[in-house]
Amino acid sequence: xxxxxxxxxxxxxxxxxxxxxxxxxxxxxxxxxxxxxxxxxxxxxxxxxxxxxxxxxxxxxxxxxxxxxxxxxxxxxxxxxxxxxxxxxxxxxxxxxxxxxxxxxxxxxxxxxxxxxxxxxxxxxxxxxxxxxxxxxxxxxxxxxxxxxxxxxxxxxxxxxxxxxxxxxxxxxxxxxxxxxxxxxxxxxxxxxxxxxxxxxxxxxxxxxxxxxxxxxxxxxxxxxxxxxxxxxxxxxxxxxxxxxxxxxxxxx
Length: 253
Description:
The chain is of the alpha/beta class. Helix content is 43%, strand content 24%. It has one domain (2-252): Nucleoside phosphorylase domain (Rossmann fold, 3-Layer(aba) Sandwich). A 5-stranded mixed barrel has the order 4-8-7-5-9, surrounded by 5 helices. Helix 1 crosses helix 8 (212-239) and helix 2 (46-58) runs parallel beside helix 5 (155-165). The model has no long low-confidence stretch (mean pLDDT 92).
């Protein structure tokens, strides 16, 4: 499993058991059915996600999972709504540069297992952008142009590596900011590439912008809502036979 941000990883897998050697936080856990789950925190962007996915394969992974929060593009999606990808589009300069299909059976099976637990997950394309989409107008434009449900900055890296290696792949996101919600651009500048907070930058932003505290609190609430929904959906899938299904597909490749 590749997760971009440390906060997302803690929400999904907890604080304990992480190893931080060579700048690549990771952990392993044994799950029922003889499945071993290895999780790597990649940092932001498709290149970092690609590197983390390749490291996992080098360590013996025979399937890839990608979890995280995302920006909503479809107007019906609200903060906390789960999204399961059936395809990933890498978009740059307003054009689709690459497209990967995600295992449709895995996506449908995951959706059915979540529905059985009264969790409704949207199934459809996810756009991967090399830069964040801050404005609601830009998100609306991307949603209409590419007919996608959500946007992130890492899914293309994982999808590309899975495709190159011929491995089954599953992607689950949770909406953080809805299509009609604007993300403050200054907030992105307070993060390092590995997803850690640049506290000096954050402090300076809060001092210079009177409205920054309110913006930060709103984003924190949305992020916590998305992370909580992501953890709930993942816990339901982990408690079902979904990972055994994924492992079975990996064994048959």
